[in-house]
């Protein structure tokens, strides 16, 4: 790799040095100079190339690892990993927004968009009657053009009249819903479970049928109530759940 690829932080800028290093590494990966699976230079070499301390560099590398861009293997080094969506404490955002926050280019391929009838599960989630109309949107979700998961979203038909003829499936669905119908998400409840990739989805996801997957069910509401019920099947090798646990006050007091 050419050493001219490394943009040293500008100490006159208001952004912290670690943030500038983090963004510089993201740019190198995005350019393709570091490809998926590549081992990045050792810490001491990166410190010299970026002109920063080891503490600053480690701060940047830790953030990149937590966001799923890098993978650290003890005794081996740090590698560029395949696109990974890391789920944890986060804001209520669309897939497009969430991927953007991770420095990943979101994409999707529309697999189906049709009008159907709510089954018992969807009716309960959307607080409508079984058999009521729902708009079914099935999409292959991509990150940097690589398959991450398949999402099937059901929208309460009464909330989105004329949706099928609106051409709203380009870009973020939430942005489109806000512009046309005034629907602004305020809360979402998610349930995670481990499942397997169905035969019908295997080829789309680039996996063998039966491989592990995360199944995520999400009910999203606005001020009027539930408007969306989504079931996502996410690749087990490109989706992580990460959380931080802290001791409660009682436990902390017991150590005093």
From TrEMBL:
Gene Ontology BP annotations? negative regulation of DNA-templated transcription
- What CDD domains would the database entry show? WHTH_GntR (cd07377)
Organism of origin is Mesorhizobium hungaricum
Q: Which UniProt keywords apply?
A: DNA-binding, Transcription, Transcription regulation
Family annotation (InterPro entries): Bact_HTH_transcr_reg, Chorismate_lyase_/UTRA_dom_sf, Tscrpt_reg_HTH_GntR, UTRA, WH-like_DNA-bd_sf, WH_DNA-bd_sf
Domain of life from the UniProt record: Bacteria
Protein name, UniProt field:
GntR family transcriptional regulator
This entry's Gene Ontology molecular function terms read:
DNA binding; DNA-binding transcription factor activity
RNA-binding found in the keyword field: no
Q: Which SUPFAM superfamilies match?
A: Chorismate lyase-like, Winged helix' DNA-binding domain
Q: Does the keyword Cytoplasm apply?
A: no
Tell me the ranges covered by the HTH gntR-type domain, including all copies: 15-83
């Amino acid at each position: 790799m050419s050493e001219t690829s490394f943009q040293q932080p500008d100490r006159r800028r208001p952004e912290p040095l670690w943030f500038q290093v983090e963004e510089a590494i993201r740019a190198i990966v995005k350019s393709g100079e570091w490809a998926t699976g590549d081992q990045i230079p050792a810490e001491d070499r990166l410190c010299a190339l970026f002109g920063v301390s080891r503490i600053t560099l480690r701060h940047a590398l830790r953030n990149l690892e937590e966001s799923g861009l890098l993978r650290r293997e003890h005794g081996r080094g740090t590698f560029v990993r395949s696109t990974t969506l890391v789920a944890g404490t986060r804001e209520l955002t669309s897939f497009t927004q969430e991927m953007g926050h991770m420095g990943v280019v979101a994409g999707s391929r529309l697999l189906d968009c049709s009008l159907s009838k709510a089954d018992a599960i969807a009716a309960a989630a959307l607080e409508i009657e079984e058999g009521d109309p729902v708009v079914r949107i099935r999409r292959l979700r991509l990150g940097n053009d690589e398959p991450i998961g398949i999402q099937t979203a059901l929208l309460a038909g009464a909330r989105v009249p004329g949706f099928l003829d609106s051409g709203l499936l380009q870009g973020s669905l939430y942005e489109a819903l806000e512009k046309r119908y005034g629907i602004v998400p305020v809360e979402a409840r998610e349930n995670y479970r481990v499942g397997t990739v169905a035969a019908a989805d295997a080829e789309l996801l680039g996996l063998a049928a039966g491989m592990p997957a995360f199944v995520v069910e999400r009910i999203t509401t606005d001020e009027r109530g539930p408007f969306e019920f989504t079931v996502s099947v996410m690749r087990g090798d490109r989706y992580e759940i990460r959380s931080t646990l802290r001791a409660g006050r009682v436990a902390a007091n017991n150590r005093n």
